């Protein structure tokens, strides 16, 4: 990957390191274990080292701090029939359905060492996503409540970050080319934005590899990291494949 110089406002630091793990499809519980481990390591180091997990998940619903049972009320039967579990989490945002074709991005960043607050962290996540959409030829804008990113066809990206000891975790979900029948099982937002994907907006298949490369590059730029170290495996990784069928 070719990575540009750090974004304006961050001095170049030789010891500033971003480890990027491209995990493929990994179950949600394993991802939580990876996050907790990375959180502890970053907290102990007390420097500006950071970790970025990039993956997809087998079908599962997660509900953030702003979520409610109402978002799931019309789909309990379908979720149960499809053996799709529901998890309540500590991230921001509401209910989201994760599935292959949706890119899950988890930046674990030492915000205190980087000198940025929560609001600025969210803005930089959004800007990285907007820049990725622009590269793909998708016109986009932020949602009114800053919960994600909209295209002309609806909302294709969702923010769901959390902060612990001034270290970010959870993060960002981008619908690249998921099964939209699954995505529409739940009410994913509070503004009645239609849930869509980059592929639906482009009216052609969006490349997961291209979106993944672009969002990594723009996140690295937004948070001032050069030459991220890319890994394609993790010792705690649990790869799974799971198919879910929904009656139409």
UniProtKB/TrEMBL annotation:
<keyword id="KW-0808">Transferase</keyword>
<keyword id="KW-0012">Acyltransferase</keyword>
<dbReference type="GO" id="GO:0009249">
    <property type="term" value="P:protein lipoylation"/>
</dbReference>
<dbReference type="InterPro" id="IPR004143">
    <property type="entry name" value="BPL_LPL_catalytic"/>
</dbReference>
<comment type="similarity">
    <text>Belongs to the LipB family.</text>
</comment>
<comment type="pathway">
    <text>Protein modification; protein lipoylation via endogenous pathway; protein N(6)-(lipoyl)lysine from octanoyl-[acyl-carrier-protein]: step 1/2.</text>
</comment>
<feature type="domain" description="BPL/LPL catalytic">
    <location>
        <begin position="46"/>
        <end position="227"/>
    </location>
</feature>
<comment type="function">
    <text>Catalyzes the transfer of endogenously produced octanoic acid from octanoyl-acyl-carrier-protein onto the lipoyl domains of lipoate-dependent enzymes. Lipoyl-ACP can also act as a substrate although octanoyl-ACP is likely to be the physiological substrate.</text>
</comment>
<dbReference type="GO" id="GO:0033819">
    <property type="term" value="F:lipoyl(octanoyl) transferase activity"/>
</dbReference>
<dbReference type="InterPro" id="IPR045864">
    <property type="entry name" value="aa-tRNA-synth_II/BPL/LPL"/>
</dbReference>
<dbReference type="InterPro" id="IPR000544">
    <property type="entry name" value="Octanoyltransferase"/>
</dbReference>
<protein>
    <recommendedName>
        <fullName>Octanoyltransferase</fullName>
        <ecNumber>2.3.1.181</ecNumber>
    </recommendedName>
</protein>
<dbReference type="Pfam" id="PF21948">
    <property type="entry name" value="LplA-B_cat"/>
</dbReference>
């Amino acid at each position: 990957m070719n990575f540009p110089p750090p974004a304006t406002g961050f001095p170049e630091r030789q010891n500033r390191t971003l480890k990027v793990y491209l995990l493929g499809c990994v179950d949600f519980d394993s991802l939580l274990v990876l996050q907790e481990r990375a959180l502890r390591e970053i907290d102990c180091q007390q420097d500006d080292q950071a970790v970025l997990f990039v993956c997809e998940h087998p079908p599962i619903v997660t509900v953030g701090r702003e979520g409610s049972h109402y978002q799931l009320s019309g789909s309990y039967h379908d979720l149960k029939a499809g053996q799709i579990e529901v998890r309540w989490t500590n991230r921001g945002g509401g209910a989201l359905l994760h599935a292959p074709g949706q890119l899950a991005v988890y930046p674990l960043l030492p915000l205190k060492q980087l000198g940025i607050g929560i609001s600025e962290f969210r803005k930089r996540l959004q800007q990285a996503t907007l820049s990725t959409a622009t590269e793909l030829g998708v016109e986009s804008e932020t949602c009114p409540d800053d919960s994600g990113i909209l295209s002309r066809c609806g909302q294709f990206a969702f923010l769901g970050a959390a902060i612990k000891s001034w270290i970010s975790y959870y993060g960002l979900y981008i619908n690249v080319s998921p099964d939209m029948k699954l995505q529409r099982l739940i009410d994913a937002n509070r503004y009645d934005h239609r849930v869509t994907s980059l592929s639906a907006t482009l009216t052609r298949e969006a490349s997961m590899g291209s979106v993944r490369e672009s969002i990594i590059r723009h996140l690295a730029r937004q948070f001032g990291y050069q030459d991220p170290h890319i890994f394609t495996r993790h010792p705690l990784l649990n790869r799974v494949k799971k198919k879910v069928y929904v009656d139409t």
